[in-house]
Amino acid sequence: MNSQDAPVVPDEERNAFRVPRMFRMSSHPMVLFFFLFFRTSAIVAYILGMLFTSSFMLLFILIFTLLAMDLWTVKNVSGRLLVGLRWRNETGVDGESIWIFESADPNRPRNTIDQKVFWYGLYIYPAVWGLLAILALVRFQFLWLSLVAIGISLTSVNTAAYSRCDKDAKRRWATELVESNSSGFVSQFLSRVFVKRFFG
What is the Cα–Cα distance from 147 to 136, expressed in whole angstroms? Predict the structure, then answer.
């Protein structure tokens, strides 16, 4: 067969087999990759370590490090870039915990792939850790259960915080929308009354 007879495959189709579609459609593929990488790596390390190694301390350090990196990445990078939300918790002068939520402009274009993967990943991974906790209880592996408890805790922090942040952002956007519409309605009403009163 002659090289001139071979069909020409566009670069886009050739690359389609190398990069999953989800990453090609993402606005921030590297952020999406690391969002999934740290979480998945911690679970895979736990499962493989439980099956193939007896060095609990090494696995504890590895999994704890992966979960800590996940916590920081999701809190400071992934949430801001993938869904336009950010949270932080500060301590007030009186020792009270103060939650601060930030959100991007609601008119900012959003990528549905980024949003779906972020929200599904935020809820699925703590559930997987929960299943692993049940498995550790059934097998009476209480030492491993302590590691699973850390996994549940560190993944659930971002889940709880981003859920509260999302509710707060939606509440603020709805309040701003109502205020802008009501002020627009009031100004239209007053202008009509003014026009009728003096010019009508």
Answer: 10
* Strands in the chain per DSSP E: 85-91, 97-103
For residue 5, being part of any structural domain is answered with no
Is residue 7 a part of any domain in this protein?
no
Q: In total, how many domains does the chain have?
A: 1
Q: Give the CA angle between residues 82, 165, 167 to the nearest 5°.
A: 110
Average pLDDT of the chain, as a whole number: 81
Range of the domain at 129: 17-199
| Segments of the chain scoring below 70 in pLDDT | 1-19, 173-200
The encoded tokens of residue 24 equal 């090609």
pTM of the entire structure? 0.74
Q: Is residue 8 part of a domain?
A: no
Q: What is the secondary structure of 107-150 as a DSSP string?
A: TS---HHHHHHHHHHHHHHHHHHHHHHHHHHHTT-HHHHHHHHH
